[in-house]
Design brief:
Ribosomal Protein L25, Chain P, RsmE_MTase_dom, elongated, alpha/beta, 7 helices, 25% strand, Alpha/beta knot, rRNA (uridine-N3-)-methyltransferase activity, 7-stranded parallel β-sheet, 5-stranded mixed β-sheet
């Protein structure tokens, strides 16, 4: 049996004997770039049915088909955790999305704050980065990347049952704060490079579900803060514990 060296995200259902048609881009990648051919093995996942080993049944320049043979990994869903962050420069925003997908965020929400540097995002491009990250890290789940949303609108309609980890560099003792709050539905909020405005801080402080926590004594860049915050939460309440 040939060893599968490539993982692909597909949108089709996966199951024993299921035939999977490839898109033009997927066919080009598998057969043109990676030089795979009929009989070669590929690992597939769709975010619902776990990971499956499939074999190339047809290979063409613009199309192809795979056939599922056996499940290699059951479906593993991440904790019910959202990451809210203010978009920054293109490459660093891409980094945040990639790392959030790798580290177990279930939903990624770019937010517009008073001091957000970037007012536009390419949602489709960021979603593609989340897919690529899941393919590379062995995950079976791809988080949704939403469109850009206004922070004040989100807070005005915040669900009572979802706890909010509000990253505040002026505080300490994050782990204890999170464990004391408990709950299964959470979100992490990372501020923009210029920090939160006083209006936003006041609103966050008044939100019953918000829990201010520290990421240490140094001021972190937004992309570093996202990774640090995800690590703190996962170790305290997530599937790393």
């Amino acid at each position: 049996m040939k060893t599968a060296k490539i993982r692909l995200y597909v949108e089709h259902p996966l199951g024993q004997g299921q035939t999977i048609p490839l898109s033009r881009d997927q066919a080009h990648y598998l057969f043109g770039v990676m030089r795979q051919g009929v009989g070669d093995a590929v690992l597939l996942f769709n975010g619902r049915d776990g990971e499956w080993r499939a074999e190339v049944a047809e290979a063409g320049k613009r199309s192809g088909t795979l056939v599922c043979e056996a499940q290699t990994t059951p479906q593993r869903d991440p904790p019910d955790l959202w990451l809210l962050f203010a978009p920054i420069k293109k490459a660093r925003t891409d980094f945040i999305v990639e790392k959030a997908a790798e580290m177990g965020a279930a939903r990624i929400v770019p937010v517009q704050t008073d001091f957000t540097n970037s007012e536009r995002i390419r949602q489709d491009r960021l979603q593609a980065h989340a897919v690529e990250a899941a393919e590379q890290c062995g995950g079976t789940f791809v988080p949704e990347v939403t469109g850009l949303q206004k922070l004040d609108t989100l807070l005005a309609n915040w669900p009572e049952e979802r706890q909010l980890m509000f990253c505040d560099e002026a505080l300490a003792g994050a782990g204890a704060t999170l464990r004391a709050a408990g709950g299964e539905r959470w979100a992490i909020l990372i501020g923009p490079e210029g920090g939160f405005s006083e209006t936003e801080r006041t609103r966050l402080s008044a939100l019953p579900a918000a829990h201010p926590v520290s990421l240490g004594p140094r001021i972190l860049r937004a992309d570093t803060a996202a990774v640090a915050a995800l690590t703190v939460w996962q170790q305290a309440l997530g599937d790393w514990a």
